[in-house]
């Protein structure tokens, strides 16, 4: 392919047609490169990509990972305590949920790693149990004769 800086003499109509085709191919290639560059810029500045990259970098740091676990565990505990004791329904519910939260948060902070490990193990066992194929047979599977029967 020739570039725009090379100059060839165009002597006849066939040379002109060939040069026009070369320029169209060159234009198409440049447009594709430009589209690719714009897509890369778009995905680089897209908020979800920025958030994903930020979380990936933060998850590399153990101290930040521990803090994120603690914050998320405290947020869930606060939510569930508020729902159980009716934080928004009455003054009694609000006071009891605040008191229990004040007791629960230090305990959760102290044992957050072991709580998360236990939850991870529970979830893995739950997923493995359902993925192992120990489902009860469906009505069509029960009707299919096997060699044991």
Explain how this protein is built:
With 149 residues, this protein is mainly α. 78% of the residues lie in helices and 0% in strands. It has six helices and no strands. It has helices at 13-45, 47-60, 62-85, 91-110, 112-131, 139-143. Helix 3 runs antiparallel to helix 4. It is elongated, with a radius of gyration of 32 Å. Residues 135-145 have low confidence and may be disordered.
What helical percentage do the residues reach? over 70%
Shape: elongated
The rounded Rg comes to 32 Å
- Enumerate the spans where pLDDT stays under 50 for 5 or more consecutive residues: 135-145
Summarize the main sheet: none
Spatial gap, N to C terminus: 72 Å
Element pattern in H and E = HHHHHH
Mean pLDDT rating = 75
Tally of contiguous helical segments: 6
Strand content: under 5%
SS class: mainly alpha
Q: What's the β-strand tally? A: 0
Give a summary of the structure in a few sentences.
Helix content is 78%, strand content 0%. With 149 residues, it is mostly helical.
List keywords for this structure.
elongated, 149 residues, 6 helices, mainly alpha, 0% strand
Topology (SSEs and partners):
Elements: H1 13-45, H2 47-60, H3 62-85, H4 91-110, H5 112-131, H6 139-143
Helix pairs in contact: 3-4
């Amino acid at each position: 392919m020739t570039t725009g800086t090379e100059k060839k003499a165009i002597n006849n109509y066939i040379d002109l047609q060939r040069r026009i085709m070369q320029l169209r191919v060159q234009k198409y290639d440049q447009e594709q490169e430009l589209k690719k560059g714009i897509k890369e810029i778009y995905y680089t500045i897209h908020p979800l990509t920025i958030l994903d990259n930020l979380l990936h970098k933060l998850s590399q740091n153990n101290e930040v990972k521990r803090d994120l676990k603690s914050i998320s565990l405290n947020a869930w505990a606060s939510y569930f305590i508020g729902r159980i004791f009716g934080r928004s329904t009455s003054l009694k519910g609000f006071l009891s949920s605040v008191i229990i939260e004040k007791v629960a948060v230090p305990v959760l902070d102290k044992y957050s790693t072991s709580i998360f490990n236990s939850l991870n193990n529970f979830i893995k066992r739950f997923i493995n149990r359902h993925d192992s194929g120990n489902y009860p047979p469906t009505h069509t599977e029960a009707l299919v004769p096997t060699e044991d029967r």
